[in-house]
Amino acid sequence: MLIRKMFRDVWKNKVPFIAVFLMMFAGNFIFSGITGEYNGMSKTFHSYIEETHLADAWVLGDNFQSSDIDQLKKNPSIDDVEKRALLISAPKSVDDKTIDLYVLAGENNISELKILDGKKYSKNESGIWLDAVFAKENNYEVKDKIELDIGGKKIEKEVVGLCYSPEYIYSIRNGEFVPDHKNNGFAFINEGDIKEIGKIHWNQLLISGTGNLKKTISNTLEGNDTTVVLQKDHTSYSVMNDEITQHKEIGLIFAMVFLFIAILVTITTVHRLLNSQRLQIGILKSMGFHKRSLYIHYISHSTFVCLLGSVFGWCAGYITLPKLLFPIMEEMYTLPKLKSAMVAGSWLLPIACALLCLAVSLAVCHKYLKENAAKILYSNSVEKEYKELPLSFLWKHLSFYGQWNMRDIFRNKLRSSMTILGVMGCVALLFSSFGLFASMNHMSEWTFDKVQTYNTKVTGNYSDEEFKNKLLQSMYGEELMETSAEIKFNGKEENAAFTGVESQDFIRLYDNEGKKIELEEGIALSRNTANKLGIEVGDRLMWKFTGSDEWYLEVVKHIVRTPMTQGITMLKSEMDAEGIPFHTTSIIGEKPDKLLTNSDYVDSVQHKSDLKYALDMMLNASVMLSVLFLVFAVLLGSVILYNLGTLSYMERYRDMATLKVLGFHNLRIKKLMIQQNLWLTIAGIIIGLPTGYGLTILMLSTVQDSIDISVYIPAYAYIISILGTFFLSWMISKLLSRKIYHIDMISALKIND
Amino acid sequence: MSIILAKNATKMYQSGARQTFALNEISFGIEDGEFVVILGQSGAGKSTLLNILGGIDCLSSGEIFVNNIPLSKMKENELARYRANDIGFIFQFYNLIPTLTVYENIALMKDIKDDILDPAAILDRVGLKQHLKKFPSQLSGGEQQRVSIARAIVKNPEILLCDEPTGALDSETGCMVMQLIQDVCREYHKTAVVVTHNANIAKVADRVIRLKNGRISDAAVNEKPMSIKELEW
């Protein structure tokens, strides 16, 4: 019979119990959804790199010999070594596409290709294995012919297989934000099938092994100009790992926030239920119901609803959220089909939520059930001893109603602080939703209007001085050197980008405060790299070009904020003065003559509009995240404000009924009620704005290290967050205040509270 | 002249086909300045009558006139004004606002009526001068009821409606409260209607209306009202 009573009680108090349900639902939804998503990505990623035997290290150099491989293989910590050559090629007559062409010397046992269509790779097969995504974007199929231009030499091959490579899970060109599979791809070919290009320089070694590979390789190949890239530092591995960690952190933060709110809502709901049922509790006790059965009965209300919300939320999140997020991830990463995967033991969360709910309900119930029947029946349990307001000098200038409301706020500290907390969460989510969106959008403006001011970047081979000068004239441009470098500082090592510029007309530098910097001597170091190595202005660091053996010592003159290219920036004049070779990799400037870009010397042409478009594509993911925040902000705000508003109305019901009996108009009572909600909303907003700012910083800090996004909060983010929350609060207050018209005045004469 | 005049006042509750009469065609008159006790057992209809007199409930048929104005013709706003200007309520359980001090509970009435009496003087009159800054929870039951009386009087209404004012108090405190109600009514020339089931209280009234099953079983003027000091229950 008590079970039937429980269901009826829950139905009668449906508003707060719906709030408990929704909060538990939201917390579990986010948790299971995000854990299912990141774990699914992690599992797919790890099983993919395991299945394809992703290299444990790459050695980059000029021309490795068989003797180098033999020497390396002698090391017990090295299991296998393969050599290959990376050649930059372009499909013929297409000026802005590039293909990384790998020539393999033997079998492909390290960083194996995953064949999607066509023949399996074999050193005895002729033909080309082409990047499946590039092929799809450019309509290549197996058995099609593809013509490639490799440094002016042309080859034509049949596509024998379409494949993925574990080294190309994430791959972008300099200055790009998202992978551009339409214009960039990779291909693999046998050494025996590419005789037409003449002598091959084996510039890469793939290592499979264990232990301190960097040290082992460096010691073995001592004297060679080499750079070792470990698996953990490879873009495909590190970016993917960063992404997984980012999702994990975001998911946990959000789930914990919602569960925390859910527990607070549970506490007030149980309080309210037991308070309203004091008489019933007394009656049941006096009739002989055992304390234990009453405990079980009253604990079961919230525990049941909590379990229901948790289980539904967990299942719904696990089923739907990964499906929403995977398409965005698939735009960024080339992986086998992503499937959600449960984190071991994550299904325990709904049970843990129910147990936590049970524990807090037990604590609340104890307060109400510990007394004997007579005391429960005849005492005013809600009558709280009331004292003057703290810091009374602050409030004494308030109006009469203001003081009244202020006292009510202090008298019901739990309810008031929960309302503030709910509003704070709502504002913080709204603020970070707009903050995130604005910061991402601002990145585009920062990148293309402030940092990279050129319109076109033409990448290619500039060994021909005549061609280079013609292009420079045509573009009113300047030379640019983009390559990778290794930095050593205080015993720490880091791979970074190197940018050599002729002037600061097309690539500008800004400090942390957004002030333009004039670099004259020394180097400028990006903030992300400086933070990683603990470098400050004035420090001296060692650096060398990747693949080179010559180290340079430079003073860090400036720490700069740059959105995409994280590393060293140096002026060409300074490089010349220090005897550092400057190899032009691109010309930047205005749009050049079409005839020039059709030259064999040109590998790719990037226009600002294309790069902006690519960035907009990346922003789609942030828009989705912003919308998600917005939805949860409104959900959280509505549920908390409505639930606690109802609680406040219930608790003040008798006072309001008395006022009505005494002759107060409904409008006056309404104003009193709305005033309190308004104050709590203001308090929530005041705390919520800095919290939202912190949340935006936190969210942006989880972005991979290769991108530096500065927090940009435009005035509209403040205005919409504040007005939006006020509007929500006002709407809910308005909805709640309608109840005042239905106050039963007769009850005021009878209730003994 | 009757300040309150009830003519065939009927309050009926309908539940399906069943009709229950809380008040069944009752008629009576109360003179200005009288101290009236409405007496009856539980379910007799006395609280219903008080609610209707106070403008917080309405009749099914018949009419009640207060100062010759029919209550049933008043709209919600007019009823609120009537309660604010003409009626002073004294509740069984005091119904003080717990987050307002004693003084503030009284001064609150400024918001609904411009010409209220001096709250401090009234509180002095009811013997609570030294408790102005205290909150209701810091007072005894008797003291809280005295605040409730002060709150009713401060509006300077014509009629005081008292719903079991001694119901939650012990005998001694109850007598003190009754004395106070009677004294202030005489002092400020108020008409008081006290609803109670305590027959002893009827002995001090100027007029006693006995209700039974929604009907008036007896209505008479008390020729020799007893002094409250002689009361005991």
UniProtKB/TrEMBL annotation, chain A:
GO terms for cellular component: plasma membrane. It is a multi-pass membrane protein. It holds the Pfam family FtsX. This is ABC transport system permease protein. It comes from Murimonas intestini. Residues 253-365, 628-744 form the ABC3 transporter permease C-terminal domain. InterPro entries: ABC3_permease_C (IPR003838), Membrane_comp_ABC_pdt (IPR038766). Coiled coil: none annotated.
UniProtKB/TrEMBL annotation, chain B:
Keywords: ATP-binding, Nucleotide-binding, Transport. One of its GO terms (cellular component) is membrane protein complex. InterPro entries: AAA+_ATPase, ABC_transporter-like_ATP-bd, ABC_transporter-like_CS, MacB-like_ATP-bd, P-loop_NTPase. Residues 4-231 form the ABC transporter domain. Pfam families: ABC_tran (PF00005). GO terms for molecular function: ATP binding; ATP hydrolysis activity; transmembrane transporter activity. Belongs to the ABC transporter superfamily. This is ABC transport system ATP-binding protein.
